[in-house]
Amino acid sequence: MPRKPRVESVGFHHIINRGVARGNIFLKDKDFEKFLEILQEATQRYDFTVHSFCLMSNHYHLLIKTKDENLSLIARQINSKYAQYFNREYKRVGPLWQGRFKNYFVYDDKYLYSLIKYIERNPIKANITKNIGEYRWAMSSKIFEFSMLNYELIKNIDFTKELNEDDIKKLEELQKAKYTKVDSEIKRVRQKSLQDYFSDKNISKNKRNELIRLAVKDGYKQSEVAEFLKLSRTVISKVVNFSE
Description:
- This protein folds into two domains: 12-166, Alpha-Beta Plaits (2-Layer Sandwich), CATH 3.30.70.1290; 190-242.
- The longest helix has 19 residues, at 71-89.
- It is of the alpha+beta class.
- 43% of the residues lie in helices and 15% in strands.
């Protein structure tokens, strides 16, 4: 089966990689520090910024924003240079990573903010710490001053509000969603057209509201649904927010 082509488009990307056989890739503080140094070197070469990161013992999460279509080059440099360091440091041979890195293109603001919460809460989920900011090797610790780090998004997120099961489910759905490139813009591939969603003109208000929420969940903007149904954006917003 051919590999799924990566989305290299300019914008936010969530990158994940794990150690082979889920083995540890960070054994001591020096390893974490070396990874961040390699990441900094990569930003200087490929001109991208880091908006969230979390380095766990056997995997890492990065949220980066690219300025060129060079995601694969970025990840290749980070992973290969760190693997070389790790194998040399611990006198080992063979692959360090379990396979190709995973990446998700972040095409939605709500997805973006939920994702940062998800990344930064990894140590809490693993019962390593209890509060955001306590884990040294996450960006929310705010102890690093690398030029690659852009703290603006982190500053604007209310971490006191936890991600609930519904938030996690929506995040997983967004990560599994298919997207395509239209006129140089990445757009989510919708399951159905708005015409298909609202083909029945005699449905009840409750059913219509349910379909509105499904359409928005499927990737349609509230403004698009409002225009199609000839309703105000305020009405659509109230319908969508009522379910959250």
